[in-house]
Design a protein that fits this description.
- The structure is a single chain.
- With 410 residues, the chain is of the alpha/beta class.
- The chain has a single domain, classed as Aldolase class I (TIM Barrel).
- The protein contains 15 helices and nine strands.
- Strands 1, 2, 3, 4, 5, 6, 7, 8 and 9 form a nine-stranded parallel beta sheet that branches.
- The longest helix is centred in the N-terminal third of the chain and has 19 residues.
- The N and C termini lie far apart (46 Å).
């Protein structure tokens, strides 16, 4: 790769030409994307990128910004990986180690349904049975072959309780995803980064076999083969560089071009957490985060759903709304963000107020977006689509759930 290939725009007008071409064509090509990425340190270039992303979003999504009212069910926080930034994963001897009983799952589901939640987010550690004998013994005592077997039971409880499951269980094989598909509206896996450097000694993923980019890309591809509406994402600030961020976004785009299954892309910033190896690792600035939300929009195009979690940048929601996002992700009135427990969810009414004050309109969605729900019945088990359609209006967004919710119907 030549150095000229990565030369940033030398002035605002040069940046505007690159950005305008992308907006009119629909998506950035790789070369211009790398040029703009190399120029994001220049406030003038950043502003051009934000303006172009906002226009791209307007063309594809209008003034709509969505949110999913959900419950977060961390089925088990045991995990064989040891990410250098994570506080979610626990070892069996930790007093904070927990595996939910199915009765507890049912209780959370009931609480979610009672408060108008449409989504049960099942999030759990990667393959704890590989690492921990005590957990293998627990599975065997409960006539379970694997964590996935248990997860299928939990998702079925959620579905039969009237809520739509979305599973993010780390790396799953194609047979495991096929077993989960009958009870899930969608599934997901943050790609995080295509950088193999992060698995080198001293890197954020050195002790994380399940963070191998090849393994994560394979799961994305197999989810496409199974026609599963799929959530992916970019994790910002864990040691990757600008070129690797661009490459990650293009990898996601290529997968969606191949299968049409990527329903949303999350742009999530790293935040240092106490008592982790990366506790003193610097976080990206809010301006940098907004710039990469905008880059995601320009690379992925006007039709992709681009999300930024509001609890991870609560003071700059207005800046994020200028960056081309059209989704805030899941916000729960019942459960905390177990991955980022230090970051409370915003109140839905407050989120609506701030979204509308920025000239946009907040609507509530299901764990699957209207594009797949309405136009691609082949992506669903019939009973799952039936429940999703029963909970949605004619536009594919969620029906109102009762008195003032802070979120309007589409």
């Amino acid at each position: 790769m030549s150095s000229n290939f990565l030369q940033p725009p030398h002035d605002r007008r040069s940046a505007e030409r690159l950005a305008a071409t992308a907006v009119e064509a629909g998506r950035l090509d790789r070369g211009p994307a790398q040029q703009l990425a190399a120029g994001l340190g220049n406030p003038l270039v950043r502003e051009v990128v934000l303006e172009a992303a906002a226009e791209s979003k307007r063309r594809g999504k209008g003034d709509t910004v969505s949110v999913s009212r959900n419950v977060f069910i961390p089925l088990t926080n045991l995990c064989r990986d040891r990410c250098a930034y994570c506080t979610f994963a626990k070892q069996p001897d930790s007093p904070e180690a927990k595996t939910y009983t199915l009765a507890e799952v049912e209780q959370v589901v009931r609480g979610g349904v009672a408060t108008g939640c449409r989504e049960a987010l099942f999030c759990l550690g990667d393959k704890p049975e590989v690492a921990y004998k005590s957990y293998r013994d627990w599975l065997a005592a409960n006539d379970l072959r694997s964590t996935t077997d248990y997860l299928v039971k939990a998702c079925r409880i959620g579905f039969e309780g009237g809520i739509l499951p979305h599973t993010n269980a780390g790396i799953l094989g194609i047979e495991e995803m096929a077993a989960l598909r009958p009870w899930n509206a969608s599934m997901g896996l943050m790609l995080e980064s295509t950088s193999p450097r992060l698995r080198e000694k001293g890197g954020a993923h050195y002790y994380c076999p399940d963070k191998d980019p090849v393994v994560r890309l394979r799961m994305h591809d197999e989810a496409g083969q199974l026609q599963i509406p799929f959530t992916s994402g970019l994790l910002l600030g864990i040691g990757e560089n600008d070129e690797e961020r661009v490459d990650t976004l293009f990898a996601i785009r290529d997968l969606d071009d191949r299968h049409g299954h990527i329903q949303e892309v999350i742009v999530q910033p790293f935040h240092a957490k106490n008592e982790t190896p990366m506790a003193h690792f610097p976080s990206l600035s809010d301006a940098e985060v907004a710039s990469w939300v905008a880059m995601a929009r320009l690379i992925l195009g006007p039709d992709m759903n681009v999300q930024a979690p509001p609890n991870l940048a609560p003071s700059v929601l207005e800046l994020l709304l200028r960056s081309g996002l059209n989704d805030w992700g899941g916000v729960s009135p019942v459960t905390i963000d177990f991955i980022n427990p230090e970051a409370p969810w915003p109140e839905l009414a407050q989120l609506r107020e701030r979204t509308e004050a920025a000239g946009q309109r907040l609507v509530e969605r299901l764990p699957v977006y209207p594009e797949h729900l309405l136009d691609h019945p082949e992506f669903f088990e019939p009973r799952v689509r039936e429940l999703a359609l029963a909970q949605s209006d004619a536009s594919g967004f969620a029906k109102p759930t009762g008195p003032e919710t802070g979120v309007e119907a589409a």
